[in-house]
């Protein structure tokens, strides 16, 4: 996935069809971060999900590239890919609390691991709601549309999942701080 971790893509002139590699270069890193959070810290599964989602985007790229928000569409495809992967249960891999050695700019790596572990213990739907609402900073309505849920279900899942996170982490964090430390 070398192409995902590249620099920002050049700006696309108005009225022209943006090319797919430029889209991947500009949005791939964000998709990978979201997938990392959705998978509870499983970097390899996150990469697989992003590749699968980008493959689906590529197939429909001519239509998607003309949309008002192709990035939002790609994000929705990623979330749906994650949720369908979990439903299939075809993978016998399990996330562990051992992460690969990587340089960390975070001042508190232990807190990051604790947050990732707590996020990973949530159900896939609850985790997706929290990631979309607080990491992606989407509204309740946008999250509901992306996950094909009602706004009430998103609010309920969000509240329940945050309560579980607070039980595990204590009450010293605001909701946005929790996921800001993970990403």
UniProtKB/TrEMBL annotation:
Coiled coil: none
SUPFAM superfamilies the record matches: Sigma2 domain of RNA polymerase sigma factors (SSF88946), Sigma3 and sigma4 domains of RNA polymerase sigma factors (SSF88659)
Cross-referenced InterPro entries: RNA_pol_sigma-70-like, RNA_pol_sigma-70_dom, RNA_pol_sigma-E_actinobac, RNA_pol_sigma70_r2, RNA_pol_sigma70_r4, RNA_pol_sigma_r2, RNA_pol_sigma_r3/r4-like, WH-like_DNA-bd_sf
Keyword Transcription included in the entry's annotation: yes
Keywords associated with the record: DNA-binding, Sigma factor, Transcription, Transcription regulation
Superkingdom as given in the UniProt entry: Bacteria
Domain annotation RNA polymerase sigma-70 region: ranges: 25-90, 118-166
Family note: Belongs to the sigma-70 factor family. ECF subfamily.
Protein name: SigE family RNA polymerase sigma factor
